[in-house]
Each structure stands twice: as C-alpha cells, then as structure tokens.
Amino acid sequence: MSGIFPGNSSLIQQLDKQVLMVLRDGRHLVGYLRSFDQYSNIILEDTFERHVAGGLFCDIELGLNIIRGDNIVLLGELVRMLVNLSNWWLCCLIAEEMNYYLHLYLQDSDKERDQPHMKRVELEEVLEAEERLNEEGNTSVRQQWDFEQQH
Q1: DSSP designation for 52
Q2: Which of 105, 41, 106, 118 shows the shortest CA–CA distance to 72?
Q3: Region annotation Disordered: residue ranges (predicted)?
Q4: Any bridge partners for residue 72, and if so which?
Q5: How far apart are CA 121 and CA 124, in angstroms?
Q6: Stronger pLDDT, 149 or 56, i.e. the higher one
C-alpha cells in the first residue's frame, strides 16, 4: 500500500498533472492541478469546461480556477498513452508473451484524438443536441451527473 495517503493527502500524486473533475452541479472541468489545501479546495490552471451531448462535445476555456472542495464529486488524472518507436517493440513483446491483443492509439496534443468516438463542434450545436435529448425524454451527461437536482 505504498504511495496511498489518507484524506486529501493523496492529491499530492496528482499535482502538476492534467485531471478531470466532476462538480456537484454536473459540470466537467479539465485542467492542471496546481495546488490544494486541507479542505480539498483546488486550484486548476489552463482549465476548460467540457460540454457533452450524444457524440458531440465542445470545450469552453475558463483559465485559472479555484474550486471549493465540497463541490467536487470526482477527480481523476487524465492519462494519455504515447507510443514511439523506442517502446513499440517492448509493447509488441509484452503483448505477444501474454497472448493479449494489443490496441495502440497514437495520440498527440489534438483533443479530437483524445475523443475518437466523439466529434468536436461549436457550443451552440451541443446545446441544440442537449435540447433534442430533453425533448426525447433522455438526459444529457451534465444532467446525469447533477447531484444537486437529484431526488
């Protein structure tokens, strides 16, 4: 159990890494965790809010944010797998030896590649898609994660 800290001390492992945060009102924020305090209040840098509706998404830049700890529902590190020729052979050997199928996703900094099953669009299109979902009786991702409106 080395490397596991009680309470908010485990946030030390996420410092200076890109994290996804879900808030009580259902908003999804992505940014770099720069600091936190004993109450789990968090400072995120280069933050954007991700809106998702069906297979569409858009990002709204927010910049630097301070998030109160009691508003956080979920926080996790975003991990990107980068493959280059130096570790390609190692990946092949490990996969072959363990008889697993190897699925490699070559990614770069382009956010569309981070979401291969989704399409980046303008905010207006996402809002229209959310309205269509509501009219059909379905809920959007934000509504599904909205703990303040849940009964």
Answers
A1: E
A2: 41
A3: 131-151
A4: 23
A5: 8
A6: 56
Residues 55-76 as b or e (16 or more Cβ within 10 Å = b): ebbbeeeeeebebeeebbeebe
Q: How many CB atoms lie within 10 A of CB 6?
A: 6
Type of residue numbered 142? R
Percent of the chain with pLDDT over 70: 69
Distance CA 111, CA 60 (A): 13
- Residue-wise pLDDT for 74-89, tens only, equals 998 887 654 454 555 4
Q: Which residues contact 75 (CB under 8 A, 6 or more apart)?
A: 11, 14, 19, 20, 21, 22, 42
The model's pTM = 0.69
The pLDDT tens digits of the residues spanning 28-63 come to 999 999 999 988 899 999 999 998 888 888 999 999
Strand order, beta sheet including 42-53: 72-77, 18-23, 28-36, 42-53, 56-67, 119-120
Phi, psi of 125 (to 5 degrees): -65, -40
Q: Which CATH architecture has domain 7-144?
A: Roll (2.30)
